[in-house]
Design a protein that fits this description.
Blueprint: H1 6-23, H2 28-64, H3 67-99, H4 116-126, H5 130-137, H6 142-148, H7 151-167, H8 173-193, H9 197-212, H10 221-245, H11 250-256, H12 258-267, H13 274-283, H14 288-301, H15 304-320, H16 327-340, H17 350-359, H18 369-372, H19 376-401, H20 407-420
Helix pairs in contact: 1-9, 1-12, 2-7, 2-8, 2-9, 2-14, 3-10, 3-14, 3-15, 3-16, 4-17, 10-15, 10-19, 11-20, 12-19, 13-14, 14-19, 15-17, 15-19, 16-17
């Protein structure tokens, strides 16, 4: 397998997983083994994410050393995130109104999947206001936040700690060296973990197919096509235009992240690519101080693919029930999505939880989510790719905005990737 690249191995794992899942459709024993393979890989990824984010952010912030500069980068980042996610929601609503994916769908043809496990979390999320998100950024116990993998709280503490290391001057140099060593060691561990990615993909896609079967796609094909069409449009038109304004070709980013995008798609996990994403964007010419802040923050505040899907899915369910939503209700839906989608990346089944919290607030039957649960995995794969591309571009945008992007280094890196291909 060594002579084949990681991308080829992952695609092979995907194909074999689909075949095995189809063969063992309905077999719970086979599903358990496949689930275990996928879970082990996701656990390996989660094991390395927090140490990499913590150590990289401390080193990056300590390198800047100026609280005003860090605050300026943070302000620009959050402003950009809010603008781009709002546009993604509006685009999703416009496309759903034009295409009407839910009109004419026969509910009796669809298989309902239990959503009970998300309901209590959604009830909490529905009461989750903007100030709650801000408040939860500040940890009460950093060790508890590290254990839970609460990225927003970890980012806040890392920034404060990094500024503290910079403020004590010479005394802070041994601490900085320690965290640089931790970051370098964890990137080595990441490279080792990536070697088992094809097995993880095999298990994750296999268990999905064995559980729901390929037939579950047919009645909801129009929704899947609409969501994927919207996502393709968002990447190659919206993000491409943002990139062009900044003097960056979106295809260059896609080219250097080929392996990571395939991995993100097949695992439906943004976390699976976070470590390599940070490493590659630094190689692409973005400074460590910006990369280590923008990417982890984007995992909570810049989920372009997720909000795009949630906007389309909300209207799909309304159309499925024959409910007409006037423009004012859709504006309210947009505002609710803008709040509920922020700061919830650490919640299992985030998109479902956000949808449940959103639908009830605008009078759409939440039971409708049960009918799309079976194909959620297929759409989750697509929205994960959009999230990854969106966050990668965000790093370049903020780096350019700050005048710290190294174009020469970026061009050299793209050439080296092309040469190696």
């Amino acid at each position: 397998m060594k002579k084949f690249g990681l991308a080829f191995q992952i695609v092979l794992g995907l194909v074999l997983g689909i075949i095995v899942g189809a063969v063992f459709y309905g077999n719970t024993v086979a599903g358990t083994y496949l689930q275990s393979l996928g879970d082990i890989f996701i656990r390996l990824i989660k094991m390395i994410v927090v140490p990499i984010v913590f150590s990289s952010l401390v080193v990056g912030v300590a390198g800047v050393g100026d609280i005003k500069q860090v605050g300026k980068i943070g302000g620009k980042t959050l402003l950009y995130f809010e603008l781009i996610t709002t546009f993604a929601i509006i685009l999703g609503l416009v496309i759903a109104n034009l295409v009407h994916p839910g009109t004419g769908v026969n509910i009796h043809e669809l298989s309902a999947v239990s959503i009970d496990k998300y309901v209590s979390t959604a009830e909490t999320a529905a009461k989750h206001g903007f100030m709650d998100t801000i408040k939860n950024i500040v940890p009460t116990n950093i060790f508890e936040s590290l254990a839970k993998g609460d990225l927003l709280a970890i980012i806040f503490f890392s920034i404060m700690f990094g500024l503290g290391v910079a403020a004590i001057g010479e005394k802070g140099k041994p601490v900085l060296t320690l965290f640089q060593g931790i970051a370098d060691a964890m990137f080595w561990v990441t490279n080792q973990v990536m070697k088992v990615a094809p097995l993880g993909v095999f298990g994750l896609i296999g268990v999905t197919v064995s559980k729901f079967g390929l037939a579950s796609l047919i009645p909801l094909a129009k929704l899947v096509i609409t969501v994927y069409g919207a996502m393709i449009f968002f990447i190659f038109v919206v993000l491409a235009l943002v990139g062009k304004v900044c003097g960056i070709n979106i295809l260059s980013i896609i080219k250097i992240l080929k392996d990571e995008l395939i991995l993100a798609y097949t695992t439906a996990s943004s976390e699976a690519v976070l470590p390599k994403l940070m490493e590659k964007m630094q190689n692409f010419g973005c400074p460590k101080s910006i990369t280590s802040f923008v990417i982890p923050t984007g995992y909570s505040f810049n989920l372009d693919g997720s909000v795009l899907y949630q906007a389309i899915a909300s209207l799909f369910i309304a159309q499925m029930y024959g409910i007409h939503l006037p423009i004012l209700t859709q504006i309210n839906l947009m505002l609710v999505l803008m709040v509920t989608s922020k700061g919830m990346a650490a919640v299992p089944g985030t998109s479902f939880v956000v949808l449940l919290a959103t639908l009830g607030s605008v009078g759409i039957p939440v039971e409708g989510i049960a009918f799309i649960a079976g194909i959620d995995r297929i759409m989750d794969m697509g929205r994960t790719v959009v999230n990854v591309v969106g966050n990668s571009l965000a790093v370049v945008v903020i780096s350019k905005w700050e005048g710290q992007y190294n174009a020469e280094k970026g061009n050299e890196y793209v050439k080296s990737i092309e040469k190696a291909a």
